Amino acid sequence: MKMGNESEIDIQDGKIPELEKMDFSSSSFDNEVYKSFFNTEDYVELVKEATRHKKSAILDVFNETMQIGDPRLDLLSNEYFRLSQEYKYLSFFERVFEINDNEAYIDLGGEDDKSKITKIMDRQCEGLDKIDRLIYVNQIDVMNNGNNYIYKIENINLLKLFIKCFLREKIWNSLYFNSHPMMLISNYDLSLPIIIDNDKDKKLYEKIANENNVFLR
Description:
Blueprint: E1 20-21, H1 32-39, H2 43-52, E2 56-60, H3 79-84, H4 86-99, E3 104-107, H5 114-124, H6 130-137, H7 140-143, E4 150-153, H8 156-167, E5 174-177, E6 182-185, E7 192-196, H9 199-211, E8 215-216
Antiparallel strand pairs: 1-4, 2-7, 2-8, 3-4, 3-5, 5-6, 6-7
């Protein structure tokens, strides 16, 4: 018997979400963060350049850079600790997704060899939760397109999959949010570089981070 406040189950709830292939040749996006997302080939140099212009930050579970000898550094190789912190990032990005009109874009390499995609995915799926493996392998046919490498995300579970892949160091890519322009870049040790175009949006993201017990430092 259904409770009065329980959401109705719909047949679409059983459909695995998919990436959407994007054609940006006629895109109306016009901001520096988008241009960086679309054009960069070197994330390290991009972050350095953004840092010089004070347009970058690090999304982290720690509020400061730890120095050599800090005992908390051992936590970064503690699998229990790392997994126990993921919910903070997921809550942060759930809110970020919401204020960006429930849309995000991910930069994934194009590939026209299905067997190669499958082999890469098999390796990346190691250590993922079963629901995430189901979602990820369902993208094989979408990604089997050598001419496409940027995809649109319109489902929160699909976004959470990629956030977990970033945190677990399974994939090395970037995500872009457009309404409040922000670019997220995969990295090591739960420290994710973020590029934000203006101070107003930076303050907005700092507020959301603080509400979810992570930090933009």
